[in-house]
Amino acid sequence: MTGAPLPEPAASPTATEDGVPSTARPPQPRWRQTLGLLARNPTAAVAATVLLLIVLMAVFDESLAPSGPNEIAVEDRLQPPSLAHPFGTDDLGRDILSRVVLGAGVSLRVGFLAVAFALVVGGLIGLLAGFYGRWVDDVLMRFMDVLFAFPAVLLAIAVLAVRGPGAGNTALAIGIVYIPVFARVTRASVLGVREEVYVRASRSVGASDLRLLSRHVLPNAAPPIIVQTSISLAFAVLAEAALSFLGLGTQPPNPSWGLMLAEGRGFIDLAWWLAFFPGMAIFLTVLCFNLLGDGLRDVLDPRQRTLMAGSGR
Amino acid sequence: MGVSVIVFGLVQLVPGDPIRLALGTRFDQETYDALLARSGLDQPLVTQYFSWAGRALTGDLGVSFRSGETVTSLIAERLPATLTLAFASILVALLIAVPLGTLSALRPRSVVDRVATVLSQIGISVPEFWMAIVLILVFAGTLGWLPSGGYVPLTEDPAGWAQRLLMPAVVTGVVSGSVITRFVRSSVLEALGADHVRTAQAKGLPGRQVFTWHVLRNALLPLVTVTGVQLAYLLSGVVVVEIVFAWPGLGQLALQAVQSRDYPVLQGAILLFAVVFLLINLVVDLLYTAIDPRIRR
Amino acid sequence: MSATLLEVADLRVRLRTPRGPAEVVNGLSYTVGRGETVAVVGESGSGKSVSVLALLGLLPARLATVTGSARLDGEDLLTMSPERLRQVRGPGVGMVFQDPMTSLNPVLTIGRQLVEGIRAHGEVSKAAARERAAGLLAEVGLPDPRRALDRYPHELSGGMRQRVVIAIALANNPSLLIADEATTALDVTVQAQILDLVAGLQSEHGTGVIWITHDLGVVAGIADRVLVMYGGRCVEDGTVDDVLERPAHPYTRGLLGALPDLASSDDGELATVPGVPPAPTDLPPGCVFWPRCPVRSDPRCATEQPPLAVVGASDGALPHRAATWCEEGSPR
Questions:
Q1: If contacts are CB pairs under 8 Å, which of residues 242-271 in chain B contact chain A?
Q2: Chain B CB within 8 Å of residue C226 CB
Q3: Which domains does chain B have, with CATH numbers?
């Protein structure tokens, strides 16, 4: 009775007790195919391109930023957007564009770390639960249910209260929140392929569990997990911004987008650009991850096994 | 039960000695020992848990380290504001989502559908605190139509109450509404394709009646679940919006408790959120049983 | 008795599919007389269901283009106003769909679903409509009809649900009943009961029936006339005796080929013809059946679609026609 209604995987219709067709082999990796299909979906393609630019921006932050992002120039404080400072300057005269560029690194790093953590831990739990079933499944998923019963933001706040603020702990907090989501999606996905003919075939010729998992189950259970990853990245970036905004996430003087928004809030009447541009950056990044997730879902997961976008909010 | 263990365990991990912190500069060993004994913090953890859980069951969540008020009364004071905001938000969300989602589903790939898809995608992606700030800037700042925040009880000043509720409710409502719009769209689309709709048409029912009773009714049944889940998320998701609009709700209380390491309050607030979350799920299940004959027995 | 009830002429349905337009029904013409039963036979994908859904305007307008004419009592179903068509659905034509599990609304009571159909066609009080609904359920053989009114579909078995679907179709005493694979999903005993039921109602009310089925046993049991469809076309039609005893088209002969003993069979499925039917987006240029035809005796088979022409002598009042270049025709 806890949590969002999750689509259960359809019982696999191809599983047969007898007669394993000789053609039963897992489909080959479909990177090329996926990329091709994705390119035909203009929205997703644009989103992917923009994201690539943002990631590049985050990687080359120092060399891209027009001036030192933490460079204080009191005489230039609260300048409106101009040629010298396209996004204006803040109350300490720091260039907002530079800080937004640098903030990309902070926000994305926390986002990627959080999702990576949730993916590894949640994915492992889901894999074990789905593959071994029975009591393993019961114990693990019951625990996930309990974790899922906590409101996301509150859980993250509580984790941060325990661990103290900071980028690493923010990633951990968001990661913990998303563990049950990945556990559920992975489990559902694994259940879907576990009974497929080629898995049974491999098992019948005595393949080890590890080999089965790595060679057959995981690659074929991957698509919904990939989609979920993209969508979760959107929310991780959003959550990082929210926590930093509350003063619990990234700490000054590091220019996280959420933190910049919080700092700009005090000057909203005087200088709208302080809060506007970091907000725009968050919005664009989140939007692109969501659009990419939708595009990937259409291509990889036509049966829509992943959670709806926004289920984490 | 599992929830309470985690709440308790989590808060136990908070670094720093809360009593030392609460006493601050007025520290002296005697008061410290007295407080330690009174709060039971010198007991073993398991004992602490059971005494806390036992008292929590009777509604006693302890005493705030900071203000000395009981946690229960602090929460009771804040609960109405949070509930008001959450319910107002869900109302806004449904008012947006049901018509928009239905229209999109009726004309897939039309202009309306495309616009609705873009809007809901934007609504899902926009950071709510940013939207809140922009709204305050426009409606409280530039236009000066609405107060920028705060709260007055409905009983004292209904007009002021509504004015102050409007912006926060719209912000959270738009976000939830975007999620629900997508859900309504796919749900109505699915219902439109159902076999029984053809049966209803073949009976010669007027189109309106077919739509209301055989499409919409079926499509909106699962909406109960989604609305419940969204309401549960709203209850916790309003934390940020409460801060921006200076809305004196539970989120604000919880955040203050974190900042001041007032951990009985934090414990109480989180436990309450979790319990409310579970309660809403329970209510949704019961409600669903009541309205869907397939589950009823 | 054979005053014409329904006259379908040159019915064509074109569907928009992801793989381009498809001629799903291609120039279908037939008539149904009062009290007469016409069986439409063919594999799935032959266009049987689409052809009857088109009659009642039940295909999605965005995807389907329907041309030709279908006169019910002289009035063209395909060109009438939407409001007039709504009035005809029910009292003019009742329809029973294939799957009793999905063709009832799961969240409304049986009674409600019957009553709304009755009240959509005339001023009837709720109580009177309920009374009539209970009567209908009794007529289709539902035990304890009054209590059944307050039940939900999932509380009934498949056979019982299909009786309810039939009751709904009959609620306004239609002059034409269309049954689309109405008994396919049911077990044999229930199927026999429902066939008896429809036959009884038919002789009582003089209803015309179009019965779409895979099942040749059913055809032999109830049909006056048979229409064999393949690839969206009528490939053979005639009286039930002509078509089943003296099939002229190679496809019909293929279908009948493995049928054991027609007289005693009541669950005989169609015999399998090797191969699969052509995709409607990709019909062969000549005879639609050519790719699977074991005969192919004429050079025109591959290039030219044969017209529907009278074959052999018929002992009935109706001509026995087949669309084939195959000359060896007539009895097996």
A1: 243-244, 251, 254-255, 258-259, 261, 266, 269-270
A2: no
A3: 2-57 (no CATH), 71-291 (1.10.3720.10)
Query: Is B107 in the C-facing interface, judged by CB distances under 8 Å?
Result: no
Bridge partners, residue B55, by sequence? none
Write down the pLDDT at residue A117.
Answer: 92
Asked if residue C24 lies in contact with residue C251, where contact means CB atoms within 8 angstroms, the answer is no
Q: Which fold has domain A59-311?
A: MetI-like fold (1.10.3720)
Task: Dump pLDDT digits (tens) for C56-72.
Answer: 888 888 788 899 989 99
Q: What is the pLDDT of residues C88-110, one digit of tens each?
A: 998 889 999 888 888 898 889 99
Contacts of B187 in chain C (CB under 8 A): none
| CB-CB neighbors (< 8 A) of A158 in chain B | 10-11, 258, 266, 270
Among the partner-chain residues B198, B205, B214, the one whose CB lies closest to the CB of C58 is B198
Chain B touched by C273 (CB under 8 Å): no
The one-character DSSP state at C316 is: S
Which of the other chains make 3 or more beta carbon contacts under 8 angstroms with chain B?
A, C
Pick the residue from chain B with its C-alpha nearest to A291: B121
Q: Which of C253, C239, C325 is nearest to C290 (CA)?
A: C325
Mean pLDDT confidence for A229-253? 82
| Alpha-helix runs per DSSP H in chain B | 2-12, 18-23, 29-39, 45-57, 71-106, 111-125, 128-135, 158-192, 195-202, 207-209, 217-220, 223-244, 250-259, 263-291
**pLDDT bucket at A17, cuts 50 / 70 / 90:** very low
How many other β-carbons are positioned within 10 Å of the β-carbon of residue B62?
Answer: 18
pLDDT tens-digit series, residues B75-126 = 888 888 888 888 899 999 999 999 999 998 888 778 888 888 888 888 888 8
- Cross-strand partners of C16: C21
Contact state of C105 with B214 under an 8 Å Cβ cutoff: yes
For range A84-104, the mean pLDDT: 71
Structure tokens at C202: 């038919």
pLDDT at position A8? 33
CATH of C4-103+174-283+307-322, one of 1.20.1440.230, 3.40.50.300, 3.40.640.10, 1.10.940.10: 3.40.50.300
A154 and B2 within 8 Å at the Cβ level: the answer is: no
Cα distance between residue B41 and residue B48, in whole Å: 7
Assign B150 a pLDDT band (cuts: 50, 70, 90): confident
Total-model pTM: 0.76
Could you read off the pLDDT of A62-72 as tens digits, one per residue?
665 556 656 66
**B176 touching A, CB under 8 A?**
yes
- Euclidean distance between CA atoms B174 and B124, whole angstroms: 8
Chain A residues with CB under 8 Å of B222 CB are 5
CA dihedral over B65, B70, B73, B75, signed as positive or negative: positive
Q: Across the interface, do B196 and C104 touch by the CB < 8 Å criterion? A: yes
Structure tokens at B101: 């989602």
Q: Do A272 and B125 touch (CB under 8 A)?
A: no
Identify which of A111, A258, A126 has the alpha carbon closest to the alpha carbon of residue A187: A126
Cβ distance of B274 and A4 shorter than 8 Å: no
Question: Which residues of chain C have a CB within 8 Å of the CB of B207?
Answer: 82, 86
Residue C87, pLDDT > 80, answer yes
CA–CA separation, C131 and C146 (whole Å): 9
Q: Smallest Cβ distance to B196: which of C95, C102, C172?
A: C102
Question: C152, B201: Cβ pair inside 8 Å?
Answer: no
